[in-house]
Design goal:
Oligomer: homotetramer
Strand content of chain A: 15-25%
Largest interface: A-B, 104 and 104 residues
Strand order of the largest sheet of chain A: 8-7-9-15-10
Helix content of chain A: 25-40%
Radius of gyration of chain A: 22 Å
Distance between the termini of chain A: 29 Å
Order of helices and strands of chain A: EEHHEEEEHHHEEHHEHEHHEEEEEEEHH
Structural class of chain A: alpha+beta
């Protein structure tokens, strides 16, 4: 399974082509739209989220409600596009390019991208490095989670911290389900405090980061591989999560705590229960041992930096004149931890769906399920 | 650039084939042996490190002290092999397999690998998932860092924490250089305490984890790309580091701290200085913005779990009888944070060398350097 | 450089995402439309070509007439779509699927695809395996040839044979340029005879194949590599050409003839001329030696099978009842050798553009050209 | 499944790492040595083949006669190495490099490789582009065919032509089996004439090419895919075969003939027989339709150029002085069509084994076979 996304933040639309899904998988626009809507929620989001109400259109690979086995193509129009048709036109123009970005934003790709491409106007860099692109990933991820659902795999997430406030605990899967989608943080007091901090930051023209937890339930043991470094699931999930624009760190299980205590306390003993098979009284390893799923919940923490586009912008330098100035402002969010969790779910889903594809092969969902069923029986008889 | 490693922990040897180096790169066995020796150091290492004294042999791709442009093949004999020739023989045998692993070690690939492959003896899993394989990565990484050195790129590392003791600060590049290679941790008192903790753990038959910092200096801005998720260097470095057997988390720059404070404090303003070009008064982003190097030091923290092979082993379950028992013991280390830093350097070097290859193309070192020189001038004239 | 195509033959549109082009490359819809139009020409084409008049729309990666460095997304609407909206709808329907394909066409993916996916209606297979998809490849190829043009590389092609009639000779590059685009075959008499054969076949409800020659001029020596099998350009070009639906054989240079004569006659001696550098009095190797371009014209012959959709259909078997019948009819062409040459040009362009990217690196066209210029000087000074 | 080869023609040894085989596959050195021996046969081979008697050593991935699931590493020592230790040493030397290649051989990578790498001595190019490297591919292919054998897939080959003499017919699988391994060409008179031509060429210091046919029997329908160009098996097999140093053309089935006749005669009608399922009275498509296996014999023709190293060498030009001279001589063969068939078998086996891996997934041979068995039943019930 592989996918390519395309699209600029203020271009006509985002597009994603997802290649490698089996045929016969039920897939509806509503499946995707539901995830796109989740990505638009969150305390501290900017005005743009109201304009958008993202809706997907399938233009390939889905027919009569099921995948065909061909590449799935999804388009997500940018509702904002109508105000940008000239600035973002594909055709050449005699006018100078509109709305140039000349004062790069710290924390963004602006400066590094301009140096890389030899540009004194960072508009092209901003347009592609914008987190708007993550809508295309969420769309692809929605198809991936539809596949995973066919194998009993469920994904949930929550917010673990916003700025200086932390959730009282790292919740279990079930405890993520009833949380407020605008700020799905365990602990009422903590959630309330987080909300307050975000609104305060917004009022101050400032931004906040935080951390999120993705939990995946129902994964069979044996996905991924210890046999070669680039087949290990820890690395592959790590790449997927660290490629999220806001992400700057990834933690599997309780790695931070585990690194501070002796092995005798922080590794998860192996028990056994008739009927249930092998049991683990704890899950500090977060569901991965040796790069392979071990049948426990997969638990992935992503740490997000504060949004780099500030209303009260940071000091910057003009790309052309080299004079000091204030960084470019662009309509933006004060905190993206809430949508960050949704994007993290999507990226995890894409990696895991690929791992299911590798382990179970098959061209149709029926074939893939038959192989999966065989493996389940193998596990039961182990 | 790509590489494949092969070899079992107690097999005859490790092998790595590294494909894609330019021709004309000076490369000596001593370059590799120096890195292999660093990997064998560290307070808390087991007896095996004394047996080994790893030495590389080039069997392909290097001639008369320079790369040929063909795949480089490196062999690292396992000195221990002579005691394992029967157990690890390639040929079939009438005897039952020697030294089976029937009590899987928590934290290791043993149980997940056996379930995956349908095995009641985890010897084959242990042999490949063992951290011994990282010697092959370090060898490949030594060639990669030789390439980077030709472009003025230097790599250093240190230990940031061991168990509950943390370094007083996250040091600058220079401050990593004079540290004690057996425990390269900033702060004399902290290093002493860390040493004590490790020896105490060893005596108790227990193990410790910790964290390490890799710093890369001399990277040009513009490596990696914001244009597609899987070309971002943050993700690619994250995969490389999280694929290290002991690694369970990765942090870029000061991500943990940055996630707790407002953007106005944690992003790195953009200044300018005649002659020096763009300047950054701080480097909380760790040298990466938008998935691209920004010309600052690259700073990568890896968090390592405690070693999962304990002399006083954890509860486990027999793979065949399902009876409770104590996990398998295998000669091992009490703490691998010191070699973990060396392996992290190697993995970072491999990703960065590939990024240099992508940005500068070229078949010979001379061609690659000419292209690099052209880009340097482009940056100077920006 | 990589690309994914999506789209069904009677779906709403074709889409292609092309990732990896440098920024700053001039690219107009007209560049693509010109190639799409060439693909629709040819004696013996079916009615559909008149309906279509393919036109591309850029929705990403091109701004103000130049590539941005982000993924380029191109949409090519299917004009025919309006007659198929229900049959090809993405949404589920209570109606049974329209226009099922139950009698698989020999030579097509129909039967193998249905067995693979477990289907008794091959509509989904036909829709994706249809040669309509090659329009997306031609669009991607048009961008690739725009890149190649920036480096002085030109591509032309002609028809070498149609059924039993063969061109009198394999022409030089220049001799391809003035040929009739409806049947670009060297030799007036042969072209006339070929036209007659095609029209005769059409009248008989039959089809014809043939062979085509793609010639690429202006390639620098040194693209591709001998160092590893999968980097050799002969193999990569071979894959690209043999993946064309009609293609069943590929020949590089005069391989067929060369295989029948002694090496002393069929290899190309190496001369030298002051100013011009190394010279080759002949080019039987077709511009590739050891998997590397040698500076001569690249000459690639593709052999095309007769179109498998016949108006007087072949014997087939009903997928459900297993009763004998006549194979499915779908509006089609009698001969696709003419568009086959255009698709072969596109596929060759895509492989070669990727090879330029690998050899010269660079993020912007300016950087890539600077590196290319350096290599050109290296060659001159050799 | 993927593999990397390393090794120079006169280096110490060849190495191949093959990653992705399932665990539990029986694999003996004898399996590989048998194929290596076949590669050394053939009328017209040079003296070197007598020195070598290639033997493989497994150093990783095989234990007690079965694959472990880890990467398989195979070493094939070069018996000739002892005469080349100084010339091919990995260490730097004060002496000038021995046996430089200054007069490039037409048809080889020598000239193009030297231009590419900026070298006036082509020794490094020759050493890696030499067909000696194909021994490593044959070793990898031997493991792949061992996997295929577990699924009832068999591979055979024969010589179709040598220079101007052609086999009377393209034989069926069975008819390849009893042929003389020194010249496995159907038709006694033709084989005799071919032998005479080769010996005559050798006496004249000249070389010959020819063509070979690989036949694969027992493949299930449904391998490969029509869904995306780079998943089609025709293209992937084409790349694999065209990457063989001597190969310059590839034909699938009877493509040459099929391109000259109407579709009504050259496509393979689809019949049905109770018990046997779908039947095809002919197999002009060579077992592939739409890029997918169709259950018929896979038939792949490779066209080989004459060996480019001539004892009476062709005109060449000195790389340094640019003076005219005679091309470099190196001990070589007069005709490599016979080993060429063995290498073609190996390359086909590697592609097909990968396709089995993709279709059936699985980590152990047992799991892979269970999935394959399920698909077989699906086909039977179709």
């Amino acid at each position: 399974m592989r996918f390519l996304t395309a699209g600029e933040s203020h271009g006509k639309e985002l597009t994603v082509i997802l290649e490698g899904l089996p045929s016969g998988l039920p897939l509806l626009a509503a499946d995707v739209d539901g995830q796109l809507a989740r990505r638009q929620l969150g305390v501290g989001r900017g005005a743009r989220q109201k304009i958008e109400s993202d809706r997907v259109e399938f233009t390939a690979g889905v027919r009569l409600g099921e995948t065909t086995g061909g590449p799935v193509c999804m388009r997500i129009p940018n509702k904002d596009w109508k105000s940008w048709t000239e600035i973002m036109a594909a055709e050449p123009s005699d006018e100078p390019p509109g709305r140039p970005l000349t004062l790069p934003r710290p924390g963004h790709a602006d400066l590094a991208g301009c140096l890389k491409h030899g540009l004194h106007d960072g508009r092209n860099i901003l347009e592609r490095s914008s987190a708007r692109e993550t809508a295309a990933r969420v769309a692809a991820g929605a198809a991936a989670r539809r596949l995973l659902a066919a194998f009993g795999v469920e994904i949930a997430s929550c917010v673990l911290s916003v700025g200086s406030v932390r959730a009282a605990e790292r919740p279990a899967f079930e405890n993520c389900l009833g949380l407020d989608p605008e700020l799905p943080m365990p602990g009422e007091a903590e959630a309330e405090e987080a909300r307050r901090l975000i609104l305060e930051a917004r009022k101050a023209g400032d931004t906040l980061g935080g951390s999120t937890l993705v939990i995946v339930r129902g994964l069979l043991p044996g996905l991924g591989s210890h046999a070669h470094w680039d087949r290990r699931l820890d690395g592959r999930l790590g790449q997927a999560l660290l490629s999220i624009p806001s992400a700057k760190a990834v933690e599997i299980g309780d790695a931070m705590e585990a690194s501070t205590k002796p092995g005798s306390e922080m590794l998860d003993p192996i028990g056994y229960e008739e009927g249930a098979g092998f049991t683990r009284p704890s899950n500090r390893m977060g569901g991965l041992e040796g790069g392979i799923t071990n049948g426990e919940e997969l638990r992935l923490v992503t740490i997000h930096k504060p949004v780099p586009t500030l209303i009260r912008p940071l000091p910057s330098t003009h790309l052309g004149t080299k004079e000091a100035g204030k960084a470019h402002k662009e309509r933006s969010d004060s905190c993206v931890v809430v949508p960050g969790a949704v994007v993290a779910e999507a990226m995890a889903a894409l990696v895991l769906a690929a791992a299911y594809g590798e382990k179970f092969g098959g061209d149709s969902l029926a074939e893939m399920k038959r192989n999966w069923e065989g493996y389940r029986k193998q596990l039961e008889a182990f």
